[in-house]
Queue: 4 jobs
Job 1
Amino acid sequence: MDLLYRPRRLRGSEVLRKMVRETRVDAASLIYPMFVMDGEDRVEEISALPGQYRYTVDRMDEAFARLLSAGVQHVMLFGIPAHKDELGSGAWAEDGAVQRALRRAKEQFPAMHLITDVCMCEYTSHGHCGALCGREVDNDKTLELLSKTALSHVRAGADMVAPSDMMDGRIAAIRRTLDDNGFSGTPIMSYAVKYASSFYGPFREAAGSAPSFGDRKSYQMDYHNRREALKEALLDVDEGADILMVKPAMSYLDLVREVRDATDLPLAVYSVSGEYAMVKAAAANGWIDEDKIVCEMAVSAFRAGADIYISYYAAELARFIREGRIG
């Protein structure tokens, strides 16, 4: 047959396919979410997230060492306090789990880049992401608490803060607080496009953060909406965000592309707990090849336009990159 164009010509060998590959993945773009908790000498496996653990600060060194050995230099810390209250005061406590973890990591692992999740849900007795007024989250009062929390993290050694609460105006409030206290060089990664998703279930077990009443649909986004995602993202750009995030990943890659096309800021995507748990469950039943699925999911996020990939599989992905199985 007389064909001038034959796309298969560039698929003939592995070495050729790699040369013309459009999407490339680098271990420097990976972030590992890690849970640190109050207490001593404990490592607890998270039943809903097989292979993932909660660490007390005195036991987290093993996790940091393993990540660095794998080639992962970015960690996002989530704190789990021993005690919770209405305002979530443990979030900004000087001796909170995240604050102590930051100080220890800075001393023991100076090569590690430390990012902190800034939210109230793990710390409040009611499980909502801010201060309550009756049974509703008080947006503006919560901004004060988030700003206080972010400042406490940076003072303890955080290299970057990542507010995940979805309160209106929180990027501007945190930026102003950091700047006023001499931390104008600390970047903010905004959970700019965060949907009210059923994919978060295993995380809520891991962090003990399920709401005791109602849900989070009055502040997290309706998953039916596309234009609203761009509105949220561009508002955060205007308020001073340095990096934007879309969360979850797998079912929202169309929004990754939309946000990528709308802004020049670096763009992160979070492959959340439900995505991880589904892969683990299917792999345990022998229904999928876990390693290949993990690689395919990561590449799909980068292909959609992400620059940064937050994943519980970060160490494994770094190994796959090193072995030439993805990249």
Note: The two ends are 35 Å apart (CA to CA).
Job 2
Amino acid sequence: MISVDGDTSTNDTFLVMANALAGNETIAEEESEDYADFLEALTAVCTDLAKMQAGDGEGATKLVEACVTGMDTKENARILAKSVICSNLTKAAMYGNDANWGRILCALGYAGVSFDPEQVDLYFEKDGERILIYTNGAAADYSEEEATKFLSGEAVRIVAQMHMGEAEATAWGCDLTYDYVKINADYRS
């Protein structure tokens, strides 16, 4: 089960179950072509559903994807990606189309994973293009206008290249909007 915002509810639950009632042959060998095909298809469906759930948050205006690459372990990459996605300040910056690399770096920093911030490169990606916003311990030379265009669509991809290894992980979430606060402030149980 996944949770979009850490607060699990029935509207952000996805379950996969099998009962063998279809009568299909069991795919038992992990090395088989059938197993690989099934795994690829299931992964694609689960990824698409996770993105749809994340981007469809209450009051959300965009899907935010945080991809941490070049990390020493998969687990550390996961922790860092989730820290960026769960950061309310990063989510608010994404809503405001603000290329505030400091909020992203801060979220990486309080994740509890050791890294050298002077070795990190931060990018925004959109439609196959990429803009570098932070490198060598400081802001990169980028156009604020161009960065705003990268952040203005229905989906934003933040890439943190850590330069520590080959592991990577991706997490999905959404921006934090006035409507989210209003919806949840007006809610009564």
Note: The chain has a mean pLDDT of 90.
Job 3
Amino acid sequence: MTRDEKLALMLKKDRYNAADLVTIVELLRLPGGCPWDREQTHVSLRKDLIEETYEVIEAIDNEDPVLLREELGDLLLQVVMHARIEEEAGRATFDEVAGDVCRKMIHRHPHVFGDTKAETVGEVLQNWESIKSEEKSRNTVTDKLNAIPRQLPALMRAAKVGKKAGVMDFPDADSALAKLREETREVEEALGGANGEEIFEEIGDLLFSAANLARKAGVDPEEALVRATDKFIRRFAAVEAAAEAEGSDLSALSQEKLDELWEKIKKN
């Protein structure tokens, strides 16, 4: 089918599917298509892919099915764009990408598509990790640690690394808390020495220990920090409103007055 025939077909339709999306992206990137779409690369689209992923998460968190449908479409568009770039380079088509993940899902679910028994979620996850390690030739714990993407949010990555390094894990949350206290003392010592590089390193150790404590306490550290940040913003807004109600500007208030307002808001 020629480019003009594909254009005509897309314009005739009133309902579209995944195959049509692949065709639309192809038309956008062909000569005579969209100048912006034609110049995109994996690297130029990297931030867009991340942004669209977080917008899907926002829709999920807000329990907004209308927005979720829209944002899933935007994320799917990113996948199709990256697949199209690969097809133009002669490396993979969208169908091949989809075919690969289909084969992967069948292979990693032998309890559904084979004779393996897995009656619990724990057994399913254990089988998944075992099969994945075999596929990727990850024979050591270090292999598995290095396979965790460095590009993940830092707290999320820290928690995953701590979990994977199970042979050296803390026995319980109390032990993780003791390590956190130890790292806090080391930060205090580093601050006393005013060595910038040492302070940087010790604060990193402190954050890593905090992630491990959260994990041992059964708390997702990434989500905990998101909620703590939201709480801070709410309280800050309340403090600012209280100051304005008294005819004051936050920047003009003393630290003592700010602390007083903060504690008042916190109690309420």
Note: The mean pLDDT is 93.
Job 4
Amino acid sequence: MELDYTAIGVRVRRFRKEKGITQQTLAEWSRQEPSNISHIERGATKLSLPTIVNIANALDVTVDALLCDSLEQSRTLFEGELSALLSDCSPRELKIITATLRTLKETLRRVDGEPS
């Protein structure tokens, strides 16, 4: 299995922004060069295991949270992410999101079931 470095970068950027820190700060906290953080967030570089661990520790997230797009067994992580996304929704927003997801799921299953 090939790692999805672009997806990892998107997650690093999202967690960094959620934490309210700059690339410079993340670089300092994770013992990286600031330019390396930029490359990582754009998916333009491969990460070593120590780099992934240092970034996860700096962002106070699990390594799984950064790698979940590349993991086959990541259902729990995605369910947790969905739960977090929905946690501050109003009843009206939940109703719309539920209807949208239901339609998306039906469409995905119908398309996946079609012969290529």
Note: The chain has a mean pLDDT of 89.
